[in-house]
Design goal:
about 625 residues, alpha+beta, Collagenase (Catalytic Domain), Neutral endopeptidase, domain 2, four-stranded mixed beta sheet, three-stranded mixed beta sheet, 27 helices, binds zinc ion
């Protein structure tokens, strides 16, 4: 990547990535390329070659679950059979939906529907209890909506209207393959849209979801039952758990439940039923013929600007490596990840945690008591690096019969996964479980475990390499590690203690001071124009706090290096965020992604730190200058 004539002092991102941006080509089957996506592409190429060799017998794996993954991979590849069967494998599922005449029929079928991924009027599931993260809880939610966010349903939202037209067009074509009459097809589509519009009035917006600490709303089961009637949630719980059915449920989206009568009731049962039919049909298509699958992806392509679906071999790899994510991730880690790199990056994590502690001690807006709690939380952070030692038992149970169609095989797998998930309710939380598999190019902080996960696949250039300078590694993976750790103290993470429990450990005035700083961060990003849209400062605040923290903490470590190269630090920070994307994708992300767009992630955090000004001699004449009193550094 060479540099263009754009001055780095005016636009770090463009100066570093400009040449690349000019020539980079977005693959037809991706919405974007650059940074994360380029690396993901490379990982995919390696893994696809391995899957091919494993399928042909040229290679073998000592991971037993990989044979199921390869068997599923072969099923996806078998387009002769998929074409021959057409829609047939989906019909038994669709017939079960069509057989519903009353809400009572639904109540009788609810448990089986839940296990077979046929949506109930409420979404239910088992997850970690935020109040006591050693335990699980049963959660209740409203349904998903068709458009990317509730804001798209506004009367004057042109994009929303266009997308609903794309969705309708797709469904119209798909319904022709079903045994429904023409009139029925029309009615099913109209009812689907009508039901979705009712749901959209009640469920949370992306902005509301972004404050996830607000999801913990315990409610007595009797109260929930009253709201969701005539759907019989008590009957469902009894069938699932017998006498030990939970008496308290956690309502993630209280309005969607309290006002459920606004979309689900006995009078409009047909709206729900037809919505359900269309939803399940769409859900099945991924496992039907390539023709149907391609049709059913039309809406997703319109949403993201992706030109075409991946070629069959890539689809097969993606599908199998996603279902058997842990075995595939362990395979990737054992094959491509070195112990030396692991040790080096784990050391870097500890150095970053220690530096955060120093910064916390020096902090000027927290009382000693709060600082102590914050340091306790930093000390408790666990690091998951590369890939897990063991593959969870569940993956050895994801089996199917050789003669099963793809859809039947996948349905059997989903059923086992669903049963396993529901059965966790009275089991302790397994804190050794990884949130991301080894072959995924990503990283995360888990607020309920207070741990960070760095899959093997992200530990490569430009993020990290043993051959790269320490400065480049700090500007790449270092700042990303700092970012993830900072999530422990962003506007969400700050509400959880060192074990991950939702608990207020702040002095009131300290929290108020922190809140004021988060408001400043909202202002720093809010309204910045980007590809015809505007950044929502509130939606992206937690990620912007994390980027700011990540850059700040690693810059401090830079001062301890003998051969620190601050220029290289900032350049590599800009490199990891390079992205070329379809316009549709950029627009979509502005409304539903909690991260700021890549170019802003590259350009905004540096200007808050004096090192940026010193490294490139940036002055008030340059575009990437902000006045000292406006510079922000929270952690
Ligand atoms: Zn983040």
């Amino acid at each position: 990547m060479s540099e263009t004539t754009v001055r780095i002092q005016d636009d770090l991102y463009e100066a570093v990535n400009g040449e690349w941006l000019k020539t980079a080509v977005i693959p037809d089957d991706r919405p974007s390329i650059g940074g994360f996506a380029t690396l993901a592409d490379e990982v995919e190429k390696k893994m696809m070659a391995d899957f091919r060799a494993l399928a042909s017998g040229e290679k073998t794996s000592d991971i037993p679950e990989m044979k199921y993954a390869i068997s599923l991979y072969k099923k996806v590849l078998d387009d002769d059979r998929r074409s021959r069967e057409g829609i047939a494998p989906a019909l038994p599922f669709l017939e079960r939906i069509n057989a519903l005449e009353t809400v009572e029929d639904l109540n009788k079928a609810a448990k089986e529907f839940l296990l077979d991924d046929i949506s109930l009027p409420v979404m239910v599931g088992v997850t970690t209890d935020m109040q006591d993260v050693t335990k699980h809880c049963f959660i209740v939610n409203g349904p998903h909506i068709i458009l990317p966010d509730t804001t798209y349903y506004a009367e004057d939202n042109v994009a929303g209207k266009a997308l609903l037209a794309d969705f309708s067009d797709m469904v119209r074509k798909l319904l022709k393959y079903t045994p429904l009459t023409e009139d029925e097809q029309k009615a099913y589509l109209a009812d689907t849209l009508a039901y979705d519009a009712l749901v959209a009035k009640k469920v949370k917006s992306q902005l509301e979801w972004s404050e996830y600490y607000k999801n913990h709303n315990p409610m007595d089961v009797e109260e929930v039952a009253g709201y969701v009637a005539p759907f019989d949630i008590k009957r469902l719980l009894k069938e699932l758990y017998g006498d030990s059915a939970p008496s308290t449920l956690i309502v993630y989206d209280p309005r969607a439940i309290k006002e459920m009568n606004g979309y689900f009731n006995a009078e409009n049962f047909n709206l729900y039923k037809h919505w359900l039919y269309v939803k399940k049909l769409l859900n099945c298509c991924a496992c039907l013929s390539v023709e149907l699958k391609t049709l059913a992806n039309a809406y997703r392509r319109a949403l993201t600007g992706v030109v075409s679906d991946p070629v069959l071999e890539k689809e097969a790899y993606r599908y199998a490596s996603n279902v058997y994510s842990e075995p595939a991730g362990v395979y990737y880690g054992r094959t491509y990840f070195g112990e030396e790199a692991k040790k080096d990056v784990v050391d870097m994590c500890h150095k970053i945690i220690d530096t955060y502690k120093l910064r916390m001690q020096r902090n000027t807006f927290l009382a000693d008591q709060t600082k102590e709690q914050a340091i306790k939380k930093l000390s408790a952070i666990d690091v998951k690096m590369g890939y897990p030692d063991n593959i969870r038992e569940i993956f050895s149970k994801l089996v199917f019969d050789e003669e099963d169609s793809l859809l039947v095989a996948v349905s059997k797998i989903e059923r086992v996964k669903n049963e396993d998930q529901l059965a966790r309710l009275y089991k302790p939380v397994d804190r050794t479980e990884w949130q991301m598999p080894g072959h995924m190019v990503n990283a995360c902080y888990d607020p309920f475990c207070n741990d960070i996960t760095f899959p093997a696949a992200i530990l490569q250039k430009p993020f990290y390499s043993l051959e790269q300078s320490a400065s480049a590694n700090l500007g790449g993976i270092g700042a990303v590690i700092g970012h993830e750790i900072s999530h422990a103290f962003d506007n969400n993470g700050a509400n959880f203690d060192e074990k991950g429990n939702l608990k207020n450990w702040w002095l009131e005035e300290d929290f108020a001071a922190f809140k004021a700083l988060t408001q400043d961060m909202i202002k720093q990003f809010d309204g910045i124009e980007f590809h015809g849209g505007k950044v929502n400062g509130e939606l992206t605040v937690s990620e912007n706090i994390a980027d700011n923290g990540g850059v700040g903490v690693t810059l401090e470590i830079m001062h301890t290096l003998d051969d620190a190269d601050f220029k290289e630090f900032f350049k590599n920070w800009a490199r990891v965020w390079c992205i070329k994307a379809k316009e549709e994708y950029f627009k979509l992300r502005l409304t539903n992604d909690v991260h700021s767009p890549g170019p802003l992630r590259a350009n905004m955090p540096p200007r808050n730190f004096s090192e940026w000004y010193e490294a490139f001699g940036v002055t008030d004449k340059d575009k990437m200058y902000i006045a000292p009193e406006k510079r922000l550094s929270i952690w």
